[in-house]
Amino acid sequence: MTPTCASLEAEYAALTFPRFAEAEAQALGAQLIALAGTAPVVINIRTPDRVYFHAALPGSAPLNDLWIKRKSNTALLFQLPSFLVGARNREAGHLLSRNGLAEADYADNGGAVPIKVAGVGVVACATVSGLPQAEDHALVVAAMQAFLAG
Q: Looking at the 3D structure of the chain, how many domains does it have?
């Protein structure tokens, strides 16, 4: 079942970090690797201008790195999960190009979730590519939830 915009909004609202810097990025990255198991994915955690964590697991492909860039660009620009941006666009019959965004640089497929800090806002983005978009998204969310549960 495809999640609704409302369920994706509620899910993201619950994902607020008390703080986030290099140490938390490394720990979240390790959590993502553990949850990914043998899945052929690329994992990336970055700010708009700096990569904190990157791992290409066995079976992933260079194309996954391009998807990482495009999905995380979307999540960081809209400050929303890329899956939610895509759901809203599909619901309204819109494309990202409506906002003047090039398909080579942005994608509204699931898998990129912004990392927001209480009292600060969005500071980074965690992204997975290599599975169907709903699974990419679910993997990032599950890792964030596990990290926050601590």
A: 1
Sheet of 112-117: strand order equals: 16-17, 112-117, 121-129, 42-46, 51-56
Residues near 34 by Cβ (< 8 Å), separated by ≥ 6? none
Burial class (CB within 10 angstroms; exposed 0-12, middle 13-18, buried 19+) of 87:
buried
Cα 144 from Cα 126, distance rounded (Å): 9
**DSSP label at 20?**
-
**pLDDT tens, residue by residue, 11-40:** 999 999 999 999 999 999 999 999 999 999
> Taking the complete model, does pTM exceed 0.90, yes or no?
yes
Domain span at 21: 5-149
- Side-chain-facing half-sphere of 14: CA atoms under 13 Å: 13
Residue 27 · residue 147 · CB < 8 Å = yes
The CATH number linked to 131 is 3.30.450.150
